[in-house]
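## Example record

The block below lists the input lines for one assembly entry, exactly as stored, with component labels intact.
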Amino acid sequence: MNKLYLAGLPALLLAGMMISCSDDDNPAGGNEGAHMDAVGVALVMDGDTLVKAEGQAITGELELHVGESLGPVLAHSLDDEGLWYRPEFVPDGAHELALSWNGLVCAATINQENWEFTLEGLEEAETALRVRILHEGHDDYVSPELPLHIYLSDAAHGGHSHFTSPEVHVDVE
Amino acid sequence: MWNRLPVWSRSWPLLLLLLTLPSSGGAEPHPCGVIAGRVLDASGTTLPLAQLELRELRRGMVADARGEFRLLHVPAGSYRLVTSYLGYRTDVRQVQTLACDTTYLQIVLQPDALALEELNVRAVARIEGLHEPALKRRSAEIQQELGLTLAETLQEEVGLGSRSMGPAPARPVLRGLSGNRLALFEDGASTGDLSASSSDHAVAIDPIAARSLEVLRGPESLMLGAGSVAGVVNVDRGLVASQQLDSRAIVSSLSGDTGKEGIGLALRVEEPVGRLDLVMDASLRETGDQRTPLGRLGNSGLSSLGLGGGLAFNDDHLRLGLAASHFQSDYGIPGGFVGGHPNGVDIGLESQHLSLELDQMLDLALLNRVGLHSRAARYYHAEYESSGLLGIEFGVLSLEQSLELGFRRHSVFEDGRLRVELKLRDFATGGLSHAPDTGELAVALAWLEHLIVGDWHGSVALRAEHSRITPDQERFSQVVGHIRERNFGGVGGAVSLDAPQVNLGSIRLQAGVELLQGWRAPSGEELFSGGPHLAAYSYEIGNPELDAERSLSVELPLEFTWQGGRLRLSAFLTEFDDFIFPSFTGKLSDRRADLYEYRTLGRDARFHGLEWSQQQRWGAWKQESRISLVTGELDDGSPLPEIPPLGFMFGLIRDVGPMQLGVDLVGADRQDRVYRAEDPLAIAEAETAGWLRADADLLWRFQAFGSYQQLHLQVENLLDHEYRQHLSRIRSVMPEGGRSVKLTWRGWW
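Predicted structure tokens for the full assembly:
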């Protein structure tokens, strides 16, 4: 048998197989802008910023009373170029807004279309809230712990309100 | 990346090969010489599975269960026949064959205190005048130390340790160096997996399927990569038969482990099919949660399957083969430890390879061999939350092609080689990863030569490489930096020299020196990572401004041998410029405030240490000891992370007929030289207490049903002692395995 043919045919076969490979054959899904870039969050109600986190730097706090609601609170995100934005609602639900806290001290109703939520105080507590942006069920963004104070009702404290507006403002589109 | 290269660049080795392949090499048309015989010990007992090799022809074989061997199609000439067997001194003899004659040999091997548990480069070089791997384990020896992973199988060799995040994803560490600095190869090519990049990524090799494994260091390792400054671990699976098979051979093994509630199976079949040689193997592993003295380590089980097959054509001058393999593994990463996911993570991994091997013997004035090797690999793994939700996934497509020329012996030079390589790699991620997809292209030219001048032996190697890493998109990220194409180029070199033996009365002394200049380009992950890593529960940030890592190593080995004993001492030092490592910052990520950041840094560093390896035989008793000490520090003298402490082993073995009984004491000193990030608020690496454990084993070799059998019973951690390895990432939640009984059976037919 001619050794050149013997050696050459399998090599050509393998080389042809290599040539036919393409990037699309990579079994991992690839990352083409599927993630929401966020390095900060601001919670705004009626045009006032209640609390803001830029990286780990937090200004302001959330306050509400037992039995009362706070909201609707709009969530604004800070991208890694330093610009604030409001995420657009996408019907397929690839991104969603989520909240987490410890215990059963409050309840939240989230409106995904408007990227906003309402909190209801259930029991007195000094705790913290995390704002999360989920992408297909996993966390794209998790905020630092944002201070959350839940007080007894105004009536229980003689009508004296503990709610204050922090003196911060975020420019949003 | 793949499609951006012109077609010719992926086929260039074939073009070169076709130019060099002669239609007739001036060689004997149909060599018909035969070298046959038996391998025995001094008492006349045959030695089954002895290894034999005709050096000049690079042809090897294994004696059968009766110690008999037969090498066919040997051209007329004079050759060195090298015969080796566990526990015996290697035999080297000159063999002459004439035309179609059969040369029959009876090779008697002498027992040797320099047991083949530790073959060292210099000892064998004295005997044979040729360079040998720093460590070589053959099938029977592998079974004696067989672990769940390659790291566990090797971890008690001198200088070797294991970095792990649970029993399944363990990776070897040599002299404190890990990752891409200790490359893992299978059949001479990269595994294509991601085990070098993170502690939770398993190695896509099951040692139960290994036919032999070796650790290459110095000039030999440079032929395979200038960045592997610690060395190359090459696992020989042998799917492409290295010589013509003359009969069917079957190797089977079965192992069980009470500590991991595990079972392992492996089967290998070699069958001649006409003029072709067929090799097939399969392996299967199932383990549950590991038992420790403090209870079960949850989510630490593993389930794996390996399949492989190869078809080869072998004759006197040509070896041509195709091989394919598939490996898959599902394993758990425990949760709740510092730097780990609170609830644990499940990982599914799969890997496929397709390779072509062609080796042609030549009869040219300067060249005696040309080889072409191509290997395509596909790798994928996905990490899942405990809820079943996909967290992150990785995919790698790689292609490695090499053309190697072998030089004839000339003057003081022998076994020289020239190698040209092309490597392509396409890396992509999915799920919650923010790392960009990258393409990598690397080309290399390497040259190795061995020299013998009188009683002096040496080796010299040079390797030039260029590497280009291209992200799918150039952009500026506030978290990572300027993500863009990077080019790296460098030259590595190595020299080793062994002085002649000196007689000091009844003691012989030999000294040597080895210098290695290494060079390693950063990987795409080290440059551009910028996102959470699920199993490591960390936020990993690359550094696009990294420079290539450069190193200069020097090693001074000293060996004393006397009647029945040997002592080897080795001192080593490696200086790094821009040593690349992930630095734990102690800061929470701005994007994921529930994860701590690890930033990739490049800083000057130094590794230095000492190794002691000693053996002594008194009749049926053998005693051995090993000590390894390494220090790794940054340029300011502060410790690097994950450096193993002083480790030691003391063992006693007694031969009782066909059985061998052994007891080992294994331990490590306290590790309190730990890494602390520059930020004073950052969390420091945890210290680890010293520990000691006792192991015992019984090895029984016998012949039954016309086959050679080996049964190995081991009891690890005999006293169920609680201890923690410093390189285990889960040591904060669980100690190492408690008392466990392992039984391994292997049969050769």
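DSSP finds one helix and twelve strands in chain A. Chain A touches chain B through 47 residues (CB under 8 Å).
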